[in-house]
Every structure is written in C-alpha cells, then in structure tokens.
C-alpha cells in the first residue's frame, strides 16, 4: 500500500524519471533530473526498498561519517516533488535512482502506483546513449513514444526499436499498458568522449524537456559548463591527429545528413527559446501548443520488453 501523507495535492503533475546505468551515457540523464531537484529544491517523499530491487554486489552501499557516527547509504530509487511557479504553476514528480538489478515488472508497477495516486498526467523518462555524433555539433535528442496519438499530438517519433532494452524501455511500455501517457527523451553522447559528466548532453535534454512540458527550467551554470566541456574536448582532439580526423569525418557525415528544413526548424526552435527566456513568458509556439492529453483511466499492466 502506498502512503502519501504530507504530499500536497499536485497541480497538473508530470513525472520525470532517469536511472543511472545502461541507459545513462555520460550520466547525462540522471544529472538532468538531479539539476531539476537541486534548482527547485525538491523534497523527497518516498524511496523504494533497496532489498527488493538491487544486487548489492553490483551496486554496493556506501559508508560515510555523520558527526562522528558511521552511516550506510543504500542504493535505491527516490521520489521527490517540486512546484514550478509562473503564470501556470505545475508540479513535477522527480524519480531518480539506479537501474534495478531484478524484479523490473514489480519496480515499474510500484512507480506506476505512485503515478496513479498522485494523479500524474504524463511520464517523461530521460536517457542517454552512445552514438556516432561529433561533440562540436548540437546534441541530437530523440523523443519517442509507443502511443501513435501522443506521437502525433506532441510531435514525437513512434518507437520502432527492436533489440535489447533497459529500464527506460520497460517503464515506458509499462506506462503504455497501464494507460498512462509516456515519452522517452534520448540524448546521443559521442562514444569517443563517453566518460561523465557531459553537461552539453544534460543541457540538451533539459531544453527538450522544457519545450515538451511547457515550463521554464532555470539552467544555472549549466550553459557555461557545457561551453567549457566542449572547449576541453576540442583541445584534447587537437592534440591527437587521428581523433581530430575522426571528428571531422563525423562532422561531414552529420552536416550532409541534415536537411535544410531540419536545420531551419532547429534554428527557429532555439530562437523561440531565447525569446521565451528573455521575456519570461510563453513563446508563440507555446501559445499554440496543444493541451496536455487527458488523464487516462487505469488499465491492467502487462509484461513487455520492447523499447
């Protein structure tokens, strides 16, 4: 049974989730949710029982000192809530944890139980993968869903992926079968510079999330961190002729593949974001954005392994 004492009634809540591990190249996705939690001072209201979902030989607990007393922090998944102010207040339920080692269906059902009890209208799951993309170009962000109506309404791709999947894919399908609208946002991280952090990918995910759920996200020092990251990678690439040549090859492939229409749309989207941040209000795109999908009814969850 889920107890939510102390959690106020939420306004148009959206659940935003990310999990460390296989779905989180460069820690880009989990860092994005951590940024939201930090900037909006999230309050943790629940944590899943670590014993149920984690192999402690894979994800080991950590020991730390608190006023001379030794304490243990167990790997788990925590839920917090933040209220986004502005003309149209909205609440976010943030889910941040580690990809579970076992019992994935029970894990997803428990998260969906919280979503149901809190009246969540949309679940957005953030992920990051390694790709053949140059660090010098904008980070590719793909938005996917299994719901064709949601794909059309929110300008997303209907997922056609087949192959191994992680908790992001499993949770998205669990949401779909339970009648909860769900979207996955994926950032492509250059495979030749995959070590965390990757603030440029984190920033790209937050920008896309901002457009998707119609909120203004405070970015803090993240844009400057992203610029510094790219300068640092530029310097490393310049010191190795093979890497520099490889990056140039990726740049040429990327520039050739991009259609002028797509580039124009990207420029327009960035300009709209600039105007929104400068004026502190909604952009023309925001004012014409279709409303959030209606809150669905409950359906029985089904097993699925498709991403």
Automatic annotation (TrEMBL):
Spans annotated as Disordered: 254-307
SUPFAM superfamilies the UniProt entry points to: Cgl1923-like
Stretches with biased composition (Basic and acidic residues): 267-289
Protein's name in the database: Filament polymerization regulator ParJ
InterPro entries: Proteasome_assmbl_chaperone_2, PSMG2_sf, Rv2714-like
């Amino acid at each position: 049974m889920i107890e939510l004492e102390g959690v106020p009634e939420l306004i148009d809540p959206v659940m935003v989730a990310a999990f460390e591990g296989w779905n989180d190249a460069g820690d880009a996705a989990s860092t994005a949710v951590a940024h939201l939690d930090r900037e909006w001072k999230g309050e943790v209201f629940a944590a899943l029982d670590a014993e149920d979902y984690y192999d402690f030989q894979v994800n080991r607990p950590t020991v730390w000192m608190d006023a001379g007393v030794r304490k243990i922090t167990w790997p788990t998944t925590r839920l917090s809530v933040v209220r986004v102010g502005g003309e149209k207040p909205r609440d976010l339920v943030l889910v941040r944890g580690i990809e579970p080692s076992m019992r994935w269906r029970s894990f997803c059902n428990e998260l969906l139980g919280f979503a149901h009890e809190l009246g969540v209208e949309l679940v957005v799951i953030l992920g990051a993968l390694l790709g053949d993309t140059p660090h010098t170009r904008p980070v590719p962000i793909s938005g996917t869903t299994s719901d064709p109506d949601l794909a059309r309404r929110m300008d997303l791709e209907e997922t056609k992926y087949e192959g191994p999947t992680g908790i992001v894919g499993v949770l998205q399908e669990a949401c779909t079968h339970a009648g909860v609208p769900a979207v996955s946002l994926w950032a492509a991280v250059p495979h030749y510079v995959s070590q965390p952090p990757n603030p440029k990918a984190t920033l790209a995910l937050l920008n896309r999330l901002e457009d998707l759920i119609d909120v203004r996200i405070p970015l803090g020092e993240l844009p400057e961190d992203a610029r510094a990251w790219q300068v640092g990678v530029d310097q490393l690439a310049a010191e190795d002729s093979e890497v520099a040549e490889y990056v140039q090859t990726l740049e040429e492939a990327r520039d050739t593949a991009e259609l002028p229409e797509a580039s124009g749309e990207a420029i327009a989207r960035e300009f709209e974001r600039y105007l929104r941040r400068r004026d502190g209000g909604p952009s023309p795109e925001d004012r014409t954005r279709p409303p959030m999908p209606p809150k669905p009814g409950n359906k029985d969850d089904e097993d699925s392994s498709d991403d």
